Amino acid sequence: MAAKVDQEMCIGCGACTGVCPVGAITLNDEGKAFVDADVCIDCGACTGVCPVGAITLE
Ligand code: SF4
Ligand code: SF4
């Protein structure tokens, strides 16, 4: 389990990167959020702040 970002939906706002308590989210070269599944602790904080609903826990 880990948060997953829909790369089509992400607008690169960066909101999710600031709320992740373990720093698992970074913006990649395309300006899209990427979650390191090995670091994510499934807290769900990022899913609530994404303005376009691009992040899901699976
Ligand atoms: S679910 Fe929590 S730990 Fe995982 S990427 Fe989102 S904010 Fe970070
Ligand atoms: S909050 Fe949503 S739109 Fe903004 S960078 Fe994160 S995944 Fe992309």
Mind explaining what this structure looks like?
By secondary structure, this protein is α+β, with helices and mostly antiparallel strands. Helix content is 17%, strand content 21%. The chain has two helices and four strands, in the order βαββαβ. It has helices at 15-19, 45-49; strands at 3-5, 25-27, 33-35, 55-57. The strands form two sheets. Strands 1-4 form a two-stranded antiparallel sheet. Strands 2-3 form a two-stranded antiparallel ribbon. A hairpin with a 5-residue loop joins strand 2 and strand 3 (33-35). 21% of the residues are buried. The model has no long low-confidence stretch (mean pLDDT 97). The protein binds iron/sulfur cluster (2 copies). One iron/sulfur cluster binds next to helix 2.
Rg calc: 10 Å
Instruction: Look at the helices and sheets and give the structural class.
Output: alpha+beta
- Please give the number of β-strands: 4
Described by the principal axes of the CA atoms, the overall outline is globular
- How much of the sequence lies in strands comes to 15-25%
The protein's oligomeric status is single chain
What do the pLDDT scores average to?
A: 97
What characterizes the major β-sheet?
Answer: 2 strands, antiparallel
Major sheet strand order: 1-4
Cofactors, ions, other ligands: iron/sulfur cluster
Number of helices: 2
Cα end-to-end separation: 5 Å
Could you name the ranges where pLDDT drops below 50 across 5 or more consecutive residues? none
Helix content: 10-25%
Q: What is the H-and-E element order?
A: EHEEHE
